[in-house]
């Protein structure tokens, strides 16, 4: 994974539709002034930013800092492009899940007190994960066949990296991705992915009821 250590307090970047997973890359365009300040400060320090998902109804919340889900993922800025108008294009690489235990809102952007939430992958879980991965690949191949597309699953990617990448990039609802992030580790996450894909395939095979007006 990475040897980066998660500090006790980190800046957080709340978004309504983005969930970051460990060891997965996330490109971001930073344009809002307070988050431009956040990136500038991160680049001057440890380059760490925590991604968190905003809770539903955030747009109707009176507080300028609406509630977020307590489990997020810290990312390390691996690439940065500073634009002439002060905006940034950055790429984060997820490295550690965390739980928010408090917030410091003294700055323009939000900072959170966090506890690390390591991924749990025992030797037994790795064996179960590999078995679940094979089921996951079969479901993805089936889904791609239905769509008339060729499979592009990287067969040589490590099991946990593949599960995390699919969790981030497959077209699930943000709350579904958040639920995947909150799983204890890649093995449980893979099982949940299988269940989600099985549900999608089942719904795709269900005839749409026809109705009409007499």
Describe this structure in words.
By secondary structure, this protein is of the alpha+beta class. It is built from five helices and six strands. Helices cover 36% and strands 26% of the residues. Strands 1-3-4-5-6 form a five-stranded mixed barrel. The protein is globular. Mean pLDDT is 88; it is low at 206-214.
The SSE string, one letter per element, is EEHEEEEHHHH
Discrete helix count: 5
Q: Mean pLDDT score, rounded?
A: 88
In angstroms, what is the radius of gyration?
19 Å
Helical content stands at 25-40%
Report how far the terminal alpha carbons are from each other. 62 Å
Q: What structural class do you assign from the helix and strand content? A: alpha+beta
Oligomer: single chain
Beta percentage is 25-35%
Brief rundown of the structure:
The chain has 214 residues and is an alpha+beta fold. 36% of the residues lie in helices and 26% in strands. α2 packs across α3, α2 packs parallel to α5 and α3 crosses α5.
Key attributes of the depicted protein:
single chain; 214 residues; alpha+beta; 5 helices; 6 strands; globular; disordered C terminus
Helices and strands in order, then pairings?
Layout lengths: L8 E7 L9 E6 L2 H12 L3 E6 L17 E12 L5 E17 L6 E7 L5 H25 L11 H11 L4 H8 L4 H20 L9
Parallel strand pairs: 1-3
Antiparallel strand pairs: 1-6, 2-5, 3-4, 4-5, 5-6
């Amino acid at each position: 994974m990475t040897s980066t250590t998660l500090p006790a307090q980190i800046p957080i970047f709340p978004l309504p539709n983005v969930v970051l997973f460990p060891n997965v890359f996330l490109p971001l365009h930073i344009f809002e002034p307070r988050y431009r300040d956040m990136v500038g400060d991160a680049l001057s320090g440890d380059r760490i930013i925590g991604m968190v998902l905003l809770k539903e109804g955030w747009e109707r919340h009176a507080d300028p800092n609406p509630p977020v889900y307590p489990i997020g993922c810290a990312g390390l800025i691996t690439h940065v492009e500073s634009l002439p108008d002060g905006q940034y294009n950055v790429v984060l690489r997820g490295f550690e899940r965390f739980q928010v235990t408090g917030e410091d809102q003294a700055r323009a952007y939000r900072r959170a007190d966090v506890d690390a939430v390591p991924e749990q992958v025992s030797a037994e879980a790795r064996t179960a994960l590999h078995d679940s991965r094979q089921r996951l690949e079969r479901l993805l191949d089936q889904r791609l066949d239905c769509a008339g597309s060729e499979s592009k699953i990287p067969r040589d990617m490590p099991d946990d990296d593949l599960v995390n990448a699919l969790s981030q990039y497959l077209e699930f609802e943000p709350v579904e991705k958040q639920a995947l992030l909150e799983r204890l580790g890649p093995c449980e996450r893979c099982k949940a992915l299988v269940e989600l894909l099985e549900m999608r395939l089942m719904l795709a095979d269900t005839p749409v009821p026809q109705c009409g007006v007499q």
